[in-house]
Prior knowledge:
Elements: E1 3-5, E2 15-17, E3 21-22, E4 29-38, H1 41-48, E5 57-58, E6 62-70, E7 82-85, H2 95-98, H3 107-111, E8 117-119, E9 122-126, E10 136-140, E11 144-146, H4 153-159, H5 162-174, E12 181-185, H6 189-200, E13 205-209, H7 213-221, E14 226-228, H8 233-241, E15 246-251, H9 256-264, E16 266-274, H10 288-294, E17 297-300, H11 308-320, E18 330-335, H12 339-348, E19 353-357
Parallel strand pairs: 5-9, 12-13, 12-15, 13-14, 15-16, 16-17, 18-19
Antiparallel strand pairs: 1-2, 3-8, 4-6, 4-10, 4-19, 6-7, 7-11, 8-9
Helix pairs in contact: 5-6, 5-11
Amino acid sequence: MRAAVLHEIGQDKLEVVDDVEATGFGPGRVRIRVRATGLCHSDLSAMSGVLPQPGPFVPGHEGAGEVLEVGEGVTRVKPGDRVVVCWLPACGQCPACKRGQTELCLAGFMNAGTPNFRRPAGDVFGFAGTGTFAEEVVVDAGCAVPIPDDVPFDIAALIGCGVTTGLGAALNTADVEAGSSVAVIGCGGVGISAIQGARLKGAAEIVAVDPVASRRESALKFGATRAVSPDELAAAKQEVTGGEGFDYVFEVVGKSVTARTAYENTRRGGTLVIVGAGAMDDFLQLNMFELFFDEKRILPSMYGGGDVLRSYERTIALWRAGRIDLEGLITHRVALADINEALDQMRTGTALRTCIEI
């Protein structure tokens, strides 16, 4: 079958090959025919080495498709079912799951250390234990989440990561208060989803911050009340909050420099939400006095900070009701053979989300 493979960490291009086999099928496992997958910035971060991932590997973790085959003991899905690929399934048994913090379950991360694919030259891993830039994947049953038949594959794919992460940051992690002021730094697909979440919660002012003009324009269409470049953030802070700072600031870039900017633009007693996935050697510096004196809450948000399955259901309900726009997030579409075109669109910021149709 065909798949897009990164041969070595640090390479910036993928090779689409046709000699890949999805491996590991057996009890408790599900074989999925991938129909659509989104390109998330985390895929680029894994390719560059910012996020740890053994290679060679097939990127992609934001996918949807249909079940081809189920292993012994699998009862939640059957052949023909439409599913979202969940890269962070909950085991239900670990301490985090028993506390109700299923987004902190490590079972999914353990999958990342086992090869998902094989080529004549040897084993190939799947990013985050999945690898949806392939025609088929074999995953644990918990990674195959059934969805209603009326949810298109491209919409379902977005729900698998970016939308759930951004919406959840606003709805679950921050629990944005109605009438509040919000700034979102980084307005790709995840940032736009955070904007939609803040709008749903009734934020009075939502300032979108991004260096790319097209993304700022898109942010206004999705609910931002104003959109500024990073150089204009200080003026927006003065105009919107009288210089005090925003009630909530979402950092959706994953770099210490933008996290520091986000902290400085959060009001005393306000909330900074860290959504972007950054590097292990990129350190955010805060002094002990400001931590004590400013009493700003710093809340990391992992995969939307809530129960993933409930978040999927909520997102579908909001989409059906017309309360959130998911179709508009897909600004570009490419075939798997043109995957490197999608990478360029992400790197230049011209795309909110590119859908790879497989």
